[in-house]
Structure formats: structure tokens, C-alpha cells
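Sharing a chain and its predicted structure for anyone who wants a worked example. Both blocks are below, sequence first, C-alpha cells second.
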Amino acid sequence: MVDHLFLLAIGALGWGVSLATYRMLAQRNAWPMGELQAQRPAIPLLIGLLSLGAGVIFAAALGTMHGGWVIIVFGLAFGLFWSGFLRVGAQTALLLAPVAAGLLLIGWLARALI
């Protein structure tokens, strides 16, 4: 059985890390940035931190015995891969991070109500 919330938490955390760190990596390595990253860096940073926070809070709620640390480790690794390997493609996290965080929160709320 696949735990979709587990996967969404990894995605939200990873894409959040990618968004929060991409501008710094792009400037240091002379990678191109999109208009939002270059002109209004606070918006991607805020989206990234909120998504990262949703993944971390879900991992903390699960606890260490139910895979919370796995979410943290895999999410960080996924974020590093997304930024480092995809470079310009990492900007797709602007769309994917809030979607993953939103679906995670909706699914978590639905699980709590059942």
C-alpha cells in the first residue's frame, strides 16, 4: 500500500528546499533565473519556506517511528537533486511546491477527520 501523504510530504519538502535555495545557487554558478527569481526573490522564497514547513510539520507529526526522519532525509535529497540536476528546470518547483503542500494539507485534514 502506498502512503500518498508520505510522498506528498517528500515532494513538498524537496521542492520547498529547491525554491528556497535556487537563487543562491543560480547566482553562485551563473545559472539562468526566471523573472520571478530575479526580480522578486521574496515570493519564491516564501513559497519554498511554506512548502518546506508543511513537509517538516507532517514529518514531525508522524514521528520517528512512523517514517518522519525518512521524509526529512528523502525530501532534502530530492531538493538537492531537483536544484542541482535540473538547474533551470528546477523553477518548475514554483508550481509543484504549492500544489504538493496544498494536497498534503488537504489529505492530512481528511485523514484526521476520518
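Comments welcome. The chain is about 80% helix and 0% strand.
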